[in-house]
Amino acid sequence: MKTFKEIYGEVFLKSWEREWNYYGGHLKKPFENFQEEEEESIQEECMDFIKNYLTLGGKEQVRLFKFINKLDLYRLQHIISTFFLGIYLYHSLCIVHCTIDNEINKILKKSKIPSHVRIDFTYIWFLICLFHDLGYQYENKKKKEEYSSFFKKECQEYLLHSAEGVPEFYKNIVEKYFNYHVRRFGKKEHGICCARVLFEDLCKIRKGKEESKTNLYWGKDLEAIYNYVAWIILAHNIWYVKKGGMDAYCYEVTELEDLILNENEYKITLKEYPFLFLFCLVDGIEPVKRIYPMSLDQVSLEINNEKIKLQPNFNNEIPKDEEDLKGWLGNVYKCIDWLSKTADLNNWLTKTEIKKDTDTDTKKEKTKYSVEINLINN
Fold first, then answer.
1. Is 97 exposed, middle or buried (0-12, 13-18, 19+ CB in 10 A)?
2. Beta-carbon count within 10 A of 29 CB
């Protein structure tokens, strides 16, 4: 097993830089010393990384860009951690790498982007990850605006094309799910807001720069990539429920039956929807947003070609000091909550189970809990 600190340390090696630094510009690596730094310094470092990355790609005019400064530190760290964890899994798991490369070949064939333009995993992944949670400012406003009213103001020129990279039925449920979310939770759904605004703004930027003489490519065929990215972001926070119970009933009365699953049924698979599967997986298991504040050596990950195993590394020794005990209990609770939320992937994404392991290599027998996640469900 490797801790997340070891994983990110590996990804930050010079030999990996081309795999995550798409534009090859100067970017200060976040997370290298975030345990030792002051919180304010970490926040600035995270904001700078996201801003500088998007600016290198000429995307600083996207409306979502201004929301970067308003995000909480844990959300900024989560965005960056999700980005690098996905990079690591893509390059470490042959089954993920091959399936996604096949998907990219299909996208490029369909979009007819010139062969000299580098559209690869890194390009699509950074667009998905670095933007995916920037729509939270729309959600946080908590103004009860339904779909047609909100997007009539926000997105007037560009409508998403046909659903790509996600199940086809998503096209028919977007408005219904958005309105369900507003009525049930009293706020807009950040993924749908982000996707629609991002697609419109990227298309506008592309059109404005199409004739400009820069090192970046701005051909109209890029809109197929923007559309693909937008659908992944749009879909990532649309939740499935199991048949039976109040949630399923609510979905039935709001005509969201496509999001109701039978036992052991999964509609998002690595084979059919590789980018959506990987993104939902990484967004679900990434530990920073659950265990905060945290050290990157608190969680370990082990992979083989068809399974991922995650394990918290909290100390089993119960402190005697009252203050130390409070901190220890808080940390244990967060780790257990993270394990529980990760195991919840079993209900909608892929087969997942909590494992109980006994470590007998030490003088005292220790019980360790982990989560095992299947990448393929036969």
1. middle
2. 17
Cβ(101)–Cβ(124) below 8 Å: no
Q: What is the per-residue pLDDT across 109-129, written as a single tens digit (0 to 9) for each?
A: 998 899 999 999 999 999 999
Report the pLDDT value the prediction gives residue 142, as an integer from 0 to 100. 67
Domain residue extents for the chain: 2-278, 299-374
**How many Å apart are CA 89 and CA 97, to the nearest integer?**
8
Per DSSP, what are the bridge partners of residue 354? 371
Taking each helix axis as running N to C, give the angle between helix 222-235 and helix 274-285, from 0 to 180 degrees, rounded to the nearest 10.
Answer: 40
d(CA 359, CA 361): 6
pLDDT at 365 over 80: no
The residues pairing with 357 across neighbouring beta strands, listed in sequence order, are 368
> Which tokens go with 202?
């990227």
Q: Report how far residue 188's alpha carbon sits from residue 150's, in angstroms, rounded to the nearest whole number.
A: 9
Q: What is the pLDDT of the chain when averaged over all its residues? A: 89
Residue 165: pLDDT over 90:
yes
SS3 call for 368? strand
Residue-wise DSSP of 215-279: SS---TTHHHHHHHHHHHHHHTTPPPEESSSHHHHHHHHTT-GGGEE-TT--S--TTTSHHHHHH
